[in-house]
Amino acid sequence: MLSGIGYWIKMATGGDNIVSTFLAAAGGSLLDNMALLFAVGIALGMAQKSDGTSALAGLVSWLVVTTLLKPETVLLFTGVDDVNEVDPAFLKVQNVFVGIMCGLIGAYCYNKFKDTKLPDALSFFSGKRSVAIVTAGVSLVLAIVLFFVWPWVYGGLVGFGEWIVTLGAFGTGIYGFLNRLLIPVGLHHALNSVFWFDVAGINDLNNFLAGEGTYGVTGQYMTGFFPIMMFGLPGAALAMYLTAKTTRKRLAYGILFSGAIASFFVGVTEPLEFAFMFLAPVLYLVHAVFTGISMAISQILPVRMGFGFSGGFIDLVLGWANPMAQNPWLIPVMGVFWFFLYFVVFWFFLYFVVF
């Protein structure tokens, strides 16, 4: 949001000024540390209780892993003479993918060891005080494993990203389909890191927000989400409400209306998606296919738009003036089509198939 407001001011005043520069730098301070935010945020979010100890554990894991695997440290491990001779994979170890793993370790150690009881002599380290210590130990093991495995993982991620790029719009559609398909298990964040951040050299999200990408290319791995999140899923919510049993309509209204608002304005889709993904998995598969098609169509038209948070109305408005934005006016036009398509398909399945 800060970056978007900065671009609006820059466009309105005809160039860089102290206010736009200040806001862009403030937004960049968060975007540049996205991996660290993932490590801390996931550790806190996946903990059984919202406790700062779990966030601290995520931070500890991140610091241990990234310090042990930074090029300067790897140089000492391998005995090479120049840091430039270190495997290039270790130049990219501070990424969201690794941040996710560190966050999961922090959450696991918190959940597992927060109630640990030690002998009286070590009682000071009992309970929550043991979490950070155990996390550091587990992270040492992760660092050792990644020292041998990360170059292969990194090579695989880069190869996958390069393969998707060569497939053009079809590849973008595959990414969109897999993005939605992985949401139930939370692995869509790992997939997103390949295309949105600088894991495989694509860096779509950061390039768009910085306005430093390639016009007509940057944003292609985000654009297709806008019509689905702002219009398609609210259309599905309307269909689910209209087909709900009369005795359940009031409950359905509360869930679906709030979910539709969240999806439209800020692109938070999970409240709606989790409302039907397990009850009607066929519909969720249809949703994943539609997302892939929307991503492909957006690339073909062409339309380019990006976001700092998700594909909602707020990010659309803030990104409208971004120099990387291309034909943003087509997004609402596409959205109307997806609204009616989602509504008709969901209504048909819910009325004639599910019940």
TrEMBL record:
Domain (PTS EIIC type-1) ranges: 1-355
Q: Does the keyword Isomerase apply?
A: no
Q: What is its main location?
A: membrane
Q: Which residues cross the membrane?
A: 20-45, 52-69, 89-110, 131-154, 160-178, 190-209, 221-244, 251-268, 274-293, 305-323, 329-354
Q: Which UniProt keywords apply?
A: Cell membrane, Membrane, Phosphotransferase system, Sugar transport, Transmembrane, Transmembrane helix, Transport
What does the record say about its membrane topology? Multi-pass membrane protein
Record's subcellular location? Cell membrane
Pfam families given in the database record: PTS_EIIC
Record protein name field: PTS transporter subunit EIIC
